[in-house]
Amino acid sequence: MRIVLLGAPGSGKGTQAALLKEHYSIPHISTGVLLREAVANATPLGQQAKAIMDRGELVPDDVMLNLIRERLAQSDVASGYILDGYPRNLSQAEALEQVLKELDLPVEEAVLIEVDADMVVERIAKRAAEEGRSDDTEEVVRNRMRVYEEQTAPVAGFYAEHGVLTRILGEGTIDEVQHRIRGALEQGNLA
Ligand code: ADP
Q1: Is residue 133 among the annotated active site residues?
Q2: pTM for the structure as a whole
Q3: 152: which DSSP letter?
Q4: DSSP 3-state assignment of 84?
Q5: Domain boundary assignment for the chain
Q6: What residues does ligand 1 touch, defined as CB less than 6 Å away?
Q7: pLDDT at 189
Q8: Could you say which architecture CATH assigns to the domain 2-185?
């Protein structure tokens, strides 16, 4: 199963991706996690990315393409993947399509998790209290939401044009949302 998860910051993408990974035994590839690891390890990538992430902006496309290309070259991806946080703009979507074509591992389903903007703000405030992410302050969250609306939301249209977009309601409990996602994936005969 080869899936791209789309949704605003705080839509629950990461949580749902982790559950899908367990259920289908396929890798969960989160560019946010990869970048935060690079920052924690103070690698050259991490040093370059930190200030950008702390402003809620996007790390440059060429940097992200190298990162995702390297991750997708690993052998576990042959069993499938759940991409979370990539692609985040149309140019990344096009670059990804090319990389996946070369690997003969095209996206089968793009799942857009839709939530109300007020709920997102509430969830992120809760996460800020629990995890202390340096980009979860109110001002930076507002910027991440703006970047999402302007740059990432059009990616759903890209996958819709390719005939692989499914929209899922992201409200309710974690289990309810998971159930909806699996239902949609299995209806598409991907499981
Ligand atoms: P969220 O889903 O809450 O927006 P992520 O963990 O996916 O958070 O990403 C955190 C930050 O990492 C982003 O705000 C951005 O700075 C950077 N980032 C993650 N993925 C990408 C990407 N594909 N392109 C550019 N920047 C990215």
Answers
A1: yes
A2: 0.92
A3: I
A4: strand
A5: 2-185
A6: 9, 13, 31-32, 35, 52-53, 56-59, 64, 85-86, 88, 92, 135, 144
A7: 56
A8: 3-Layer(aba) Sandwich (3.40)
